[in-house]
């Protein structure tokens, strides 16, 4: 396992608003997300988890400090370059699945490649699709799939471009515990078998046990960083 940083922040500060209503969502956060590892970000509501994820993924700029994807300092990039970087080098999984309703599961999986103008590596697409176990559901639209199946499509979609990092925001938040455990098993598998780097925001201590490390935030600061068991199902 390499320990290069797939992504990292340096003294990251994020302030929303100004004056008396200003909120410091990130307060001097320096954290590393090692390559090929599964990191969980935990902490109470309002502690800055989503803000950290959004800033590290290049969705939202910092007020001060730096955030890097590999060697790329995101603060130096234009909006166009950031969009390109997100399409080519970052994968996303959201709590609410965010699949396109008019596309089939298979079309949703290859959409990021189409958007990035990348020719699909069919062997890779077949492998990630087989891994998430959708079988004959691939020709179905999201409304014809269970929540667990939809989120598995979202994971396959995130893996399609072989991104440097997948950021997952409460990916099991809308799933029952069985579907949630299955999904976490897939994320774990992607790290173990494909050396995928994953950063997952979660409230759930059981979900965090699937990760290799936990970064805990409180009031916009890192209050704990610890290794976990990396639970394998
Ligand atoms: N767009 C925004 N404008 C103003 N304040 C914001 C904005 N986004 C977040 N905040 C504030 O920043 C702080 C951190 O929010 P954030 O969403 O990052 O926390 P979180 O730990 O992800 O919370 P939750 O677990 O409830 O999703 C909170 O006080 C929140 O109210």
UniProtKB/TrEMBL annotation:
Q: Which InterPro entries match?
A: AAA+_ATPase, ABC_transporter-like_ATP-bd, ABC_transporter-like_CS, ABC_transpr_LolD-like, MacB-like_ATP-bd, P-loop_NTPase
> Which Pfam families does its entry note?
ABC_tran (PF00005)
The yes or no answer to whether the keyword Nucleotide-binding is present is yes
Query: Where would I find the ABC transporter domain in this sequence?
Result: 7-233
Q: Which domain of life is it from?
A: Bacteria
Matching PROSITE patterns: ABC_TRANSPORTER_1 (PS00211), ABC_TRANSPORTER_2 (PS50893)
Q: Which keywords accompany this UniProt record? A: ATP-binding, Nucleotide-binding, Transport
Supply the Gene3D superfamilies for this chain.
P-loop containing nucleotide triphosphate hydrolases
Q: Name one GO molecular function term.
A: transmembrane transporter activity
- What cellular-component terms does GO give this entry? membrane protein complex; plasma membrane
Tell me what this protein is called: Putative ABC transport system ATP-binding protein
What species was this sequence derived from?
Answer: Cryptosporangium aurantiacum
